[in-house]
Every structure is written in C-alpha cells, then in structure tokens.
C-alpha cells in the first residue's frame, strides 16, 4: 500500500489543526503550510477536499483560515484518507470484493478484503487526538506477537 503525498499532507495538516492552541479559532493556510513545511497551493486543494468531506470549516477574511469541524477525538484518520484519496484499499480501481480471478488465484479477493479490513481497523480506530503530542497513543496498538517479531507469513 502506498500512502500518497496528498494523504500524508492532509493528515499532517489535520494534526496541526488538532494541536492548535485555540481550536475554535481558524488557522491560516500560511500557518499550516509553514508549520508542516507543505506546499501552499497543494495544501489549499487538500483543505478544499477536507472541507467538502465535512472535516474542516473554512472562514474567509483577513483572520480567516481553517479549523476542525468535529472535535479531533471524533475524526478517525481513515476519514482523512478517504476525504482526499477515496477508498482505503482498491485493486486496480476495484473494491476488493469486486475482484475476480480464475485458477490458482481465485481466492485472492478474500486476501484483498482482509487487507482492507486491517487498514480500516487501524485507521478508523485511530482518532486525530490520539496522534497529537498530548495524546500520542497512535503507536500503542496491541499487535499479535507473530507480527511484532516480523515473522507473520515469512518462511
């Protein structure tokens, strides 16, 4: 799975908003771009996607900018992924359950669905607030021991 620059920048901008000193006041695009070292024009397009998805609210004017629409604790990271890049897991443009194969590969859709399910579990169970410094729990998943050792599926 590749996490696109668009998705990475969106998550970083959302974390910047989640960590704002005054969450009810808008943060300008310039402040967001400088705070995370993001290209301003690209960030503007990303913020438009996030606004259309209902994740941020924009305010126009000299003191305008963006703020989170719901609270950071109510925004799963998966929602940010979907807002800017669409479904979490696709196989050549198809949803995993829409794929079909013949012969020895006929059971691959089951694997693709499991991959999507795992992504959903991690990304939808992780809120923005759990990834900002004050909450920083996004790396504390309870992985099965076989995965923790890096031996899952390897021979």
Topology:
Elements: H1 5-18, H2 29-36, H3 40-52, E1 56-59, E2 65-68, H4 77-85, H5 108-124, H6 145-148
Antiparallel strand pairs: 1-2
Helix pairs in contact: 1-2, 1-3, 1-4, 4-5
List the helices and strands in order.
HHHEEHHH
The total count of helices amounts to: 6
In terms of per-residue confidence, which ranges show pLDDT below 50 for 5 or more consecutive residues? 143-155
Major β-sheet annotation:
2 strands, antiparallel
Class derived from helix and strand content: mainly alpha
Mean pLDDT: 86
Shape: elongated
- Could you tell me how far the N terminus lies from the C terminus, measured between alpha carbons in angstroms? 22 Å
Radius of gyration: 18 Å
**Helical residue percent?**
40-55%
Subunit arrangement of the protein: single chain
What percentage of amino acids are in beta strands? 5-15%
Give the strand order of the largest sheet, numbering strands 1, 2, ... along the chain.
Answer: 1-2
Q: What is the strand tally?
A: 2
Tell me what the structure shows:
Helices cover 42% and strands 5% of the residues. It has 155 residues and is mainly alpha-helical. It starts with a helix and ends in a 7-residue tail after the last helix. The C terminus is likely disordered.
